[in-house]
């Protein structure tokens, strides 16, 4: 018997980066060490600079990286950032996760698309082993001068601006299509409804995105470092208790682990709902024939 053809639909798996896929901030692995500093010493100074100057912490840190490099005589370029990306350490199973989820989706006639929405730097993510798996990456980014060094923040993403990129994914827009994000689009014309979005995050900067995804019938998942159950797990469980997320799970992406089982179950549910909608549409068509 020939296999019944079912229309494939898109599902978006959307990830924060730092503390969600990587074990800590992406700048900690290669960029800060290039300054001859340790992250535990660098970040308090950078954050204090933002406070002293009334700057948004993300924007302030972008400037502070450029300022520090200039003062130390280090020529910061795209290549520096990409090299830093090569040194990132991921949680267990991350590097195999994307292919496995995509293949699982294919079996259900689901087209899985992976996205990043991060306050980290796109240029660092471009150097990562896992960069090839993403449909798009929405992160902070620099504008560069003729000498190839950063001169200005081209894009800044923080906790409140992350949600606009969920809307872009929902409407099938690229990162530079800013005006269209507020244009009206009927729900049935949107490529990826919120109910087919799964958002992964680890902290307070993800709360607006988690809340929005959950409120619109998508799935929000708070992950925590399996090796840091005192702080990281408590933070994730609080998000669950406060109703901000649907699940609080350890960031272990290996096959058969909790997050693997949960996501596959959600994908099964999405596929069954799609099949049910097809059956219901057939019944509605019958009515019109009467």
Topology summary:
Blueprint: E1 9-15, H1 31-34, H2 39-52, H3 57-72, H4 78-85, H5 94-107, E2 110-121, H6 122-125, E3 136-144, E4 150-155, H7 162-171, E5 197-201, H8 207-215, E6 219-224, H9 232-241, E7 247-250, H10 258-289
Parallel strand pairs: 1-2, 1-5, 2-3, 5-6, 6-7
Antiparallel strand pairs: 3-4
Helix pairs in contact: 2-3, 5-10
Task: Explain what the structure shows.
By secondary structure, the chain is of the alpha/beta class. The protein contains 10 helices and 7 strands. Helix content is 42%, strand content 17%. A hairpin with a 5-residue loop joins β3 and β4 (150-155). It is globular, with a radius of gyration of 21 Å. It has helices spanning 31-34, 39-52, 57-72, 78-85, 94-107, 122-125, 162-171, 207-215, 232-241, 258-289, and strands at residues 9-15, 110-121, 136-144, 150-155, 197-201, 219-224, 247-250.
What attributes does this structure have?
Rossmann fold, 290 residues, 10 helices, alpha/beta
CATH class: Alpha Beta
Overall geometry comes to globular
Pick out the low-confidence regions. none
Distance between the termini: 31 Å
Concise synopsis of the structure shown:
The chain is α/β, with parallel strands linked by helices and about 290 residues long.
């Amino acid at each position: 018997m020939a296999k019944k053809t079912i229309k494939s639909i898109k599902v978006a798996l959307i990830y924060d980066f730092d503390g969600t896929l990587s074990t800590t901030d992406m700048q900690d692995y290669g960029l800060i060490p290039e300054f001859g500093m340790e992250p535990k010493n660098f970040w308090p100074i950078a954050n204090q600079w933002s406070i002293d100057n009334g700057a948004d912490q993300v924007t302030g840190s972008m400037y502070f990286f450029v300022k520090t490099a200039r003062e130390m005589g280090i020529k910061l370029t795209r290549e520096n950032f990409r090299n830093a990306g090569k040194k990132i350490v991921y949680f267990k199973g991350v590097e195999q996760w994307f292919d496995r989820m995509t293949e699982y989706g294919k079996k259900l006639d689901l087209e899985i698309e992976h996205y990043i929405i991060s306050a980290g730097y796109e240029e660092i993510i471009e150097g990562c082993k896992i960069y090839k798996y993403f449909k798009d990456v929405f992160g902070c980014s620099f504008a560069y001068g003729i000498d190839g060094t950063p001169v200005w923040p081209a894009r800044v993403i923080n906790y409140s601006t992350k949600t606009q990129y969920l809307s872009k994914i929902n409407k099938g827009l690229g990162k530079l299509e800013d005006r269209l994000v507020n244009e009206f689009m009927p729900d049935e014309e949107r490529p990826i409804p919120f109910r087919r979005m799964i958002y992964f995050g680890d902290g307070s900067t993800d709360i607006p995105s988690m809340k929005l995804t959950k409120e619109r019938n998508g799935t929000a998942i708070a992950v925590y470092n399996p090796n840091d159950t005192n702080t990281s797990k408590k933070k994730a469980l609080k998000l669950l208790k406060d109703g901000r997320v649907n699940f609080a799970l350890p960031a272990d992406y290996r096959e058969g682990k909790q997050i693997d089982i949960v996501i596959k179950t959600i994908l099964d549910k999405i596929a069954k709902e799609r099949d049910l909608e097809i059956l219901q549409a057939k019944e509605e068509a019958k009515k019109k024939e009467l």
